[in-house]
Amino acid sequence: REVQEHAFEPFFSTRPKGEGTGLGLSMVYGFVQRAGGHATIQSALGSGTQIRLYLPRSKKTSEPTKLAAHTPTVVQAGNGKGNILVVDDEKELMELTVEFLTEAGFKVSTARNGKEALEALDRAPEIELLFSDVLMPGGMNGYELAVQAQQKHPRLKVLLTSGFTDNTVVDDVKQRFSAGILKKPFRKQELVQQIRRVLEQ
After folding, report:
1. Total domains, the chain
2. What is the pTM of this model?
3. Which of 27, 55, 166, 187 is exposed most, by the fewest CB atoms within 10 A?
4. Which CATH number characterizes residue 84's domain?
5. 121-164 per-position pLDDT tens digit
């Protein structure tokens, strides 16, 4: 019961230290709240845990024909050029990001934490842009990674992303990196447009 009471709190985790940020459920809860919904959690020993998300019904009228007509032109980036390193400790999110970028024509490498990312950059100096989550386990967050990476590779472009950031972090990132932060959850179009913009700077 104690775990249930704290499950949606930022940085609360039942994993061993260093194996998770404790932000998974907190981020989900934040997304649901911003959409005007709420979430509940029920858990029973030996039976498992059930989390329910309640979201308000959209008042917008769907236009399937119009949407279908526009779908192919949303991201015309099969000719996207650039070599990108994606860094995220959340496997599913990283895989989705990689899918978005490869479909857009970019060459993509991955790393799960700051240490792996720095090693990848040393092995592949042709990488042009670092796209990293801000909050990660392992003793180095995305901001620190970006600073170290640019110190070693001054021509490297940086775009950071996060679903849980306070104003202080956002301001610090904006001062150091002109691209700022791409807020999670993001759509394919938003990601590709931001990546292109940063590469062209």
Report:
1. 2
2. 0.62
3. 166
4. 3.40.50.2300
5. 999 999 999 999 988 877 888 888 999 999 999 999 999 988 76
